[in-house]
Amino acid sequence: MQSSHHDPGFTVRLAETDAGRHDADSGLAAPRSFRQRRRNRHGRGLRGELMLPTLPGYRTRSDRFDDFVLDSAERLHDIWGKPLDGVRFAVDEIPPGLEQLVADRAPAPMGAYSPATPEEGPVITLYRRVVEQACGSRDELQDLVHDVVVEYTAEMLGVPPESLDPVYRRRY
Fold this sequence. Notes:
By secondary structure, the chain is of the alpha+beta class. It is 35% helix and 12% strand. The strands form two sheets. The protein has a three-stranded mixed beta sheet with strand order 3-5-4. It has a two-stranded antiparallel ribbon with strand order 1-2.
């Protein structure tokens, strides 16, 4: 590769890499790898993150929903303690068999409770999309998530939800 400056007698010859070498017989360039073909305009390299961690848009709806479930589970564990040891709280996108429920015009469950097995403890699962569609705002979502966690935890313990948490359904 040659480059000329303003002075016609001045020439710079750069060493060619294997990828930039031309085949003498055909005049075609040898194939280059993807990394060598990729363009890096203006030498700036890869860009940084699109959203800074300090901005509210950094966290996804799924992350916020997971935090709501975790906050509710921790609140119940602080109130009840020992009976809730070993309980797993899980989040799924949609309930299994949702297509059949829609076809039957049955309401979709907001969560599910799976009793303990010899291999693992009890599992309380919340269905994120169903719960989100039942709410209009973020504050309502946090309250509804807490109520669903309380309802399924009360089902697991065999007590009424009102006795499990004193603020159950009193925030609306």
